[in-house]
Amino acid sequence: MDVNRWYSLVQMDDLERVMDLLSLKEQHARTLLIHYRWDVDKVFAVFVDKGEEWLFKEAGVMMEEHNDLSLGHSSSEDVRCDICMEDIPAYGTATMDCGHCFCNKCEHFITCFFSLPQSRILSKDLIAKLSIDISWTEHFIVKINEGQSRRIRCMAHKCNTICDEGKIRNLVCTRNPDLAKKFDRFLLESYIDDNKRVKWCPSVPQCGNAIRVENDKYCEVECACGMQFCFSCSSEAHSPCSCLMWKLWMGKCQKESETVNWITAHTKSCPKCHKAVEKNGGCNLVRCVCGQRFCWLCGAATGAEGHICARYTKDKEKNLECARVYLWRFMHYHSCYKVHTASLEVEVHLKEKLKMKISELETGEPASQDLSWVEKGIYTLFRSRRILSYSYPFAYYMFGHDLFQNEMTKEKREIKQNLFEDQQQQIEAYVEKLSMVLEEPFKVYAKDEFAETRMKVICLSKVVDNLCRALYEYIENDLLGPLQQAIHIIAPYKSTGEEKASKLA
């Protein structure tokens, strides 16, 4: 089916609802819906709250009947253009719903203008340019080229009426048929570009699909191409992070991840001033710029003679400088985030192996055995692993000072952080158990051992699902719920995962 034809059919449901309720023509219904970003409920709400007159006026819809002079007069009869004030044949004008009548192509104005004395000091090119905005056809061409196709207003002074799309199409088509097609395409695509319930899939390379959700925009959806993304911000699915948290985290990772990697690999903290020290020689007895000598292996302070240590011990100094504390804090959360992200990437291969196992088992004996538990297990593993990965950026901002410094007291923050981390650790423990069981070679197990593995996967999948749900409830009700800032909204948890969005293209 032709794409434009297909988009027209998709839009008709919304258009017909508005046309039926308000007894409108299609062009007026489209003008209303474009103004209210294709939100039919918003149109009806404004109609009920403020009335029909206010609704139409705000959207630029003129319902008072005005005869088109070009249709109501004979071809030989003259009418007056409201701009050039010349009497011209009716067929050379067009009248919009507001009643304003202008030339389709104002040749009379150009002739009249050239006859005036001041025209001698102006070039013909400039005068021709001045005539662009005083004829319907040129007015429409300019607006379409400027990308204003969806709401082209009447060119009369202080008139907010939206021009009749049929007259726009006809006038532009006589001059530039390709531009008329562009105008039609812009009108059709407004259903996707301006509609808060519809978005293009952000996959790279683009799949070309547009998808629609029926209710809340704060949700995570899956396109037919397999791309899972946040419908609110069009970035990858990132709950339990809010959109703002995820945006800040990605920006911070781009700026600081390489710095963190380099500092971790090449420096140690001075035990006296806590500055990062780089070793530039082979000796493991190093000296900081502050004069303090310390052992590169264990980080302990030493004298000029140094010392011998049996093993490396990580520095646990508590009195680090403020900037140093922030750095190490980011490194902790970034490291945990990357660990689970890396595990997720590795478990993609596990998913492929399990698909092969399922295929082989289904063709074996007994061929009718139920293997849905394997698919459920790997799906739960992927979903919970991703939640774990994104829970660390969430914790970084939730319990830090970047966003919510004045929202919680220090004592309350510590209590809530401990409760959050307890749930986080429980999920981690059971996710790792589930991953280990799914990696077992159950394909070659005996009947009893196979049944035992099946029960383990089913039980672990259920436990992990319940723990993830409980974590989301805690985040929504106890962490984000009491905040004064209502901008941090996360997609709700669903056991079935991302909503399979309806495909529009």
TrEMBL record:
This is RBR-type E3 ubiquitin transferase. SUPFAM superfamilies: RING/U-box. InterPro entries: Ariadne (IPR045840), ARIH1-like_UBL (IPR048962), E3_UB_ligase_RBR (IPR031127), IBR_dom (IPR002867), TRIAD_supradom (IPR044066), Znf_RING/FYVE/PHD (IPR013083). Its EC number is 2.3.2.31. Its cofactor is Zn(2+). It holds the Pfam family IBR. It catalyses: [E2 ubiquitin-conjugating enzyme]-S-ubiquitinyl-L-cysteine + [acceptor protein]-L-lysine = [E2 ubiquitin-conjugating enzyme]-L-cysteine + [acceptor protein]-N(6)-ubiquitinyl-L-lysine. Keywords: Metal-binding, Repeat, Transferase, Ubl conjugation pathway, Zinc, Zinc-finger. One of its GO terms (molecular function) is ubiquitin protein ligase activity. It comes from the Eukaryota. GO terms for biological process: protein ubiquitination. Residues 77-313 form the RING-type domain.
